[in-house]
């Protein structure tokens, strides 16, 4: 009786292993029972730019001067269109918006920086706390060929899950310094 019970357990456990091996068919070449190897690069990118609460107006500051921009207010300004290759999405995209420097000159930032003015830099922040830095030279057409744009549409449509505004730039190999759900821009002097 004991031998028959052990044989039944052995058969049952062997059947379970066979079933497990069959259910692991997508893991060929890996040890049996090993967890599947997932490509997590896209998941990490989405987590990095996690969905955040709906942003309010875009707040821009330089010293004691500040301004706030709603979608309606920004849409009334003259727009520039740029087409860039988005390495993350593997496609050319056409963004429309306002050059970043156009928001900063009314606050006192020079459109033609000289000398100590090149100590200024911009910190742009998204609702998910993602932050990037640009030097004043990089956002000024007088110095740099690239365009840094506060975009409010892509390919003729709203930005969707990228928020009301997105900071995008030409002349970069990948969109690492693009900011989705853009909510704040601060101009600061380097020490």
Written overview of the protein:
The chain is of the alpha+beta class. The chain has 2 domains: 36 residues; 133 residues, Sulfite Oxidase, Chain A, domain 2 (Alpha-Beta Complex), CATH 3.90.420.10. It is built from 5 helices and 9 strands; from the N terminus they run H-H-E-E-H-E-E-H-E-E-H-E-E-E. The chain has a 5-stranded mixed β-sheet with strand order 2-1-9-5-6. A 4-stranded antiparallel β-sheet has the order 3-4-7-8. The longest helix has 22 residues. It starts with a helix and ends with a strand. 23% of the residues are buried. About 18% of the residues have low confidence.
Give short descriptive properties of this protein.
191 residues; alpha+beta; 5-stranded mixed beta sheet; 4-stranded antiparallel beta sheet; globular
